[in-house]
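Aim 2 progress update. The chain analyzed this quarter is reproduced below.
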Amino acid sequence: MIKLLSKKNFIPEILIALFPIALVSGPLVPEIFILIINIFFLTTIIIKKDYHFLNNKLIYIISIFVFYVTSLSLFSEYKDQIFLKNIFYFRFILFILAIYYFLNKNSKFIYLIFYSLIIMFIILIIDGFYQFAYDKNLFGYPKYRSDRISSFFEDKLVLGSFISRYFFIIIALYFYLRNKFNDLIIIPFILLSFVLIVLTGERSALFLTIIGLIVIFILLDIKFLSKFIIILSAAIILSASFKINSTLYDRYIIQTKSQISFSEKFDLRSFFDRFKYYKLSWNTAFNGFKENKIFGQGPKSFKYFCSQPKFVTYSSKKSFKNNNIQYLDIHKKFINVEIIETFFKVGDVIENNDLLLKYRFKNKNYKFFSNKEGKINLVNVATGNLINSGHQIFTLDLTDFGIPEKSYFYRNGCTTHPHQLYLQLMSETGLIGTLYIFGIFLFIIYLFIKHLFVKIFYKQLLYNNTKLCILTYFFLLLFPMTTFGNFFNNWFIMSFSLQLGLLLYFFIDKKNENK
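Predicted C-alpha cells:
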C-alpha cells in the first residue's frame, strides 16, 4: 500500500485518498484536509515553478464561474451578508488543481482513492442496513424520521445523495483499474449500494440513480448480460421494497402523489402550484429572478431576500397555531432529549422568554424558554422524561389574558435555499450563471449523443467506460428535473470537488486515452 504513495508528496496524496471518508464527519475535517493539501500544492508548484498544467480549457471554465460568483457577491444588494461567505471559493479551485496535479505526478495513488471509496461504501452500507433494521446505527445514532435513515450523517438526511454521488465515480475507477479485479465483484457492490439508496428514503437520489443506470446501460461497452442483470435486479429490488415495506411505499409513492398534482391543464403562471411542498419557496426564488434577470440577487442570498415583501410568496390558505399550548420548539434533530429540571407547576403564570426547563442531548445541557403566555392548568412533562421536539409541555388558561386560543397566519416560502438547482441559480446568479451551468449540462448530452452516434454507425468508442461514468455523474449532478441541496453550500461543493479533479485528470492527461 505504501508503495502506491510517493515519498515527496506522501501527505497530500494520503489526504486526497481519505477525503471522501472525511466528508462523512461533517465540514470541519475536510476543510482542514483542503487547507493542508492546498498548502502543499502551492509550495510545490512555486518551488518547482511548475505552472504549465494550468493552461487548459476545463480549468478556465471552472475558474470563470467562480470569479463570476465572487464578483456577484461584491455588487449584490446583500453584500454585507454574503460577501465574506463567498470570497474564499478560490480554495476549491486550488483543491481541484491539487488533485489533478498530484495524480499527474503519481497516478498510482488512484488505487488508494478507489480503496478508500470502497471501504467507505462498505461501512456506510453495513451501518445503513443496521440503522434501518434497529432504528439506530452502530454508534447509537437514532433515526431522525421513521421513513429516512442517515447513518453517520445523523440529522443531515443526505446518506442517499452521498452514496449516489460517489456511486458512478466508484464504477468509473473500477473500469480504469479493471485488469486488477474480477467483474463479479462490482455487480453485488452496485446492487447493495442501490438497496441502501432505496432504504434512505431520498426520492431525488433514487430517481437520479435510476436515470444514471439507464444512461450507462445505453452507453457503456460491457456485456449485455451484465447490463441486464443490473437493471433487472434494480427493478426487482425496487418493486419488492415497495411491496414488502409500507413505510418505503408511503415515502416514495403516497407522499410524492400528495405533493405533486398533474390534474390541471398546463399553465406557466401556475406551474409551481403543482408542487405543493416546494411551491412557496420556488415562487419566491422566481420572484427574485424576475427582479434581476441578468445577475440575480447574489450567491447564498436566498435566505436574506426571501422575506422581503417584493419577493415573499404566501400560501393561499391560512394555517393556525395554538396559543393555549406550549410545545417544545427546538430543532427537529433533537430527539429523545432528557428533561433534567423544570421551573413551573400548575397555577403558575408564564410570560414570554421565561425559563421553563433544562434538557440534555448528547451529554450537553440546554435551556428552553417560553414563547407563550398564560396560566398553566395542565402539565405533560416531568424530570427524567425523554421527549422530542414538538412535544406538548403544558396547556394554558387564557381566560384573563385577552389572547385567542388560535391565531391564523399565511405560511411563506422563506428558507435557506429554494431546493432546486436552476431556480437557485436563476434567483442568485441570474441568466448568466444559469445558462453557464445549463450549457455545461447540454454539452454533456451532446457528448453522449456523439459517442452513441460513433458507436452505432462507426463501430468505434469515442470515450472509454471510465470517462462515460464520470460524465454520467456530472450529467446527474446538473439534471434539472429534480430537487436539490444548496449548490453554494461549502460541504456540498467539497463533496463534488474530488470528482472535478478526476474529470481534469482523465480528460486532459493523454496517457489515459486508451486505458
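Residues 131 and 140 are 9 Å apart (CA to CA). Residues 2-50+89-255+464-512 form one domain. These observations will guide the mutagenesis experiments scheduled for the next reporting period.
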